[in-house]
Amino acid sequence: MHELSVARNIIEIVEQNVPKGELSCVREVMLKVGEFSGVVADSLKFSYEIITADTELQNSELKIEAVPFRLRCNSCGGITTNSCGLRECADCLKTDTEVLSGEELKITEIILEDKS
Ligand SMILES: [Zn+2]
Question: Hey, CA dihedral for 18, 24, 30, 36, is it positive or negative?
């Protein structure tokens, strides 16, 4: 199950970015997941919950923002959005395109509980 290893990676990154004693204060981990990152958001959330259960991160939640797949055509400059991940310009049908978004998988923010 791919999402399980992705969830482990996310937890590693959180552990690297949050000081040891404050892991239990993590409330939300914001994540951008591209439509074509190859990750299923629901499975990822589920995996995250399983792995963090009974750990210092058990009160944290994964918040996933889905990013649509977008291409820019190098030939006509048109922007294409499609839901099949095809790298073809919708205007001129050339495949000389650049992926603008939709393949990312990254943590954008880690939100800690305000201790004050
Ligand atoms: Zn084009």
Answer: positive
Domain residues for 49?
A: 2-17+26-112
Q: Where do we find the tokens 């970015």?
A: 17
Ligand 1 mean position to 88 CA, how many Å?
Answer: 8
Q: Which residues surround ligand 1, an ion (CB under 5 A)?
A: 73, 75-76, 78, 89, 91-92
Task: Look up the CATH number of the domain holding residue 52.
Answer: 3.30.2320.80
Residues contacting 19, CB < 8 A, separation 6+ = none
Could you tell me the pTM of the whole model? 0.84
Domain count, the chain: 1
Per-residue pLDDT of the chain (116 residues; tens, 9 = 90+): 699 999 999 999 999 999 989 999 999 999 999 999 999 999 999 999 999 999 999 999 999 999 999 999 999 999 999 888 899 999 999 999 999 999 999 999 999 998 65
Q: Please tell me the distance between residue 71's alpha carbon and the centre of ligand 1 in angstroms.
A: 10
In whole angstroms, give the CA distance from residue 23 to residue 60.
9
